[in-house]
Design brief:
Protein name: Phosphorylase b kinase regulatory subunit
Helix content: 40-55%
Strand order of the largest sheet: 7-3-9-8
Number of helices: 27
Structural class: alpha/beta
Family: Belongs to the phosphorylase b kinase regulatory chain family.
Largest sheet: 4 strands, mixed
Pathway: Glycan biosynthesis; glycogen metabolism
Strand content: 5-15%
Function: Phosphorylase b kinase catalyzes the phosphorylation of serine in certain substrates, including troponin I.
InterPro entries: GH15-like, KPBA/B_C, PHK_A/B_su
Number of domains: 5
Amino acid sequence: SLGCPVVPKYYYVPADFVELEKKNPGSQKRFPSNSGRDGKFFLWGQAVYIIAKLLADKLVSPKDIDPIGRYVPPQDQRNVSMRFSNQGPLENDLVVHVALIAESQRLQVFLNTYGIQTQTPQQVEPIQIWAQKELVKAYFHLGVNDKLGLSGRPDRPIGCLGTSKIYRILGKTVVCYSIIFDLSDFYMSQDVMMLIDDIKNALQFIKQYWKMHGRPLFVVLIREDNIRGSRFNPILDMLAAFRKGIVGGVKVHVDRVQTLISGAVVEQLDFLRITETEEAPVFKSLEELDLPKHSKVKRQSSTPNASELEQQPDVNINDWKNKSTYEILQKLNDCNCLASQALLSSILLKREGPNFITKEGTVAEHIERIYRRAGSKKLWSVVRFAASLLGKLVDSLAPSITNVLVQGKQVTLGAFGQEEEVISNPLSPGVIKKIIYEKCHLQDEREAVVQQELVIHVGWIISNSPELFSGMLKIRIGWIIHAMKYELKIRAGDMPAKDLYQMSPSEVKQLLLDILQPQQQGRSWLHRRQIDGSLNRTPAGFYDRVWQILERTPNGLIVAGKFLPQQPTLSDMTMYEMNFSLLVEDMLQNIDQPEYRQIIVELLMVISVILERNPELEFQDKVDLDKVVQEAFHDFQKDHSSPKGAEKQDDMTAFYNTHPTGKKGTCSYLSKAVITLLLEGEMKPSNDDPCTIS
């Protein structure tokens, strides 16, 4: 009848009694905050109080609020007499059961010649093999209740833990293969090296997080397309590793599905009870390819890396975008080049829409065929172009962004030099897709799908090697792509740079890992600044130093037209909070040259050191960082006068390429410009200053 007690957010001593409290701590009465009286509750404290009451009254148990078992009660702890036996985690010695499934008998016979024993879908019967998306369809029915307005499980992929169980569904026994083997989604799975990497990552994830009593059953689906071309050898090496029992440091045991099923975890999907009046959902199991058993598998029908010439269209879009639809259709029918077909189809798609009929069905269907053919031939530029036209969305995009956010960083999506969208909260896949295709289609259609690749790679890398992103508060995907293009130019030297869009997804991932590594010593300072500036990398303690600068700059800082005022910044924030760091990043956001951004970062570090060593100095006026850099550059030009004349006086390349430290380093010129600006103002007298003249 009295209701539930309200937990205040804090207790306080009234202002009139603060001095008495300071003189005698604990002597004054504390008063609760206004929480609850104004209709607003301190939800965190209130929630903890309610949970504590439920636990105290034994209405819930610790296990109810600890589903992953972080807390182990004393009676359940290991009781072994050895010293330190109860300390530290037990080594995870999980063995993952693996079933190798070949999509055709022809492939099975071919692999058998290399000593790789597999099964086909027919040989597994009556057990059915499903793609994870079929399992998603089954889970649509979980929790559906029309009376309560509950719609069931959302349309989200099921991870590798979920696909490592056996399912009983409507009288069927079902095993599922992971989404990494599903060709109906994103093109990254068509890169064999990425597939191998994904398999190893999935096995490591299962080993780390599998907590159920049975063994996980990991189905490896081997497709004929996987063994085409010279990349058959890596696949063969991986399959040989499965046979040996260790893959990527994970113990595995390969056997027939019928044998492994006895030790697996079986889950009954009882919620799929279909009444006589209801129509049973239709599920599609993996079907064996109907190919002649003894026909030859054509391993060399595609190459791992198509030549640049194959990836270039033999038509010019500017010549064709104003031609009639009839002429474009004629050219499309006569053209054998997939790159040209994709380009012509894009014109039809934008002009006539996806349902416009061509010789090979609708425009959308034609582009889908181009997408598949280009993927088979490893024409990655064409694949990316077609994928973008079709609006493809990679699975696990939202979780990858969440992986970045939980590391205390933000993600921005959008092309380099264009407007970017900042993501600071987890978003649904649909919202992310809308952002990507709105922000990344302006210059190059392929950018939209490459950014998705990068998000997936960044999400994985930051989870496993967060130190590679130290000093990077905002992960600006468009700028990272720009850094990768810089890296390719640096590697090419005087030769034409490799096209990023023509590289395979695994090569793109390796390039990303390369640029995230600390910069190599033999590299020029221009290149270092270009890469670090593109990555938005800052030195340790950078944001704290900007705070200290702001304390001595009453009229604030400005750079590239972006103003950072001293007040109310200092009164509203603290030095170490994330909001201030983001405010500094926002100030630097308008800088459009990576190398110039890095010079500004160096300048702020120089200002901080000078102010730290000269406590009597402060800036009197607003500090325009652009003007300070220009002053430093003018001094640099005086010392490095160019005989070429005045036409390149604004070219700062030589300045960017100068070592930061030393007598003629950039820091010396920046320091001189800063000191000149400081000395224009007044000095604050200090009683402790030994140089004060009485």
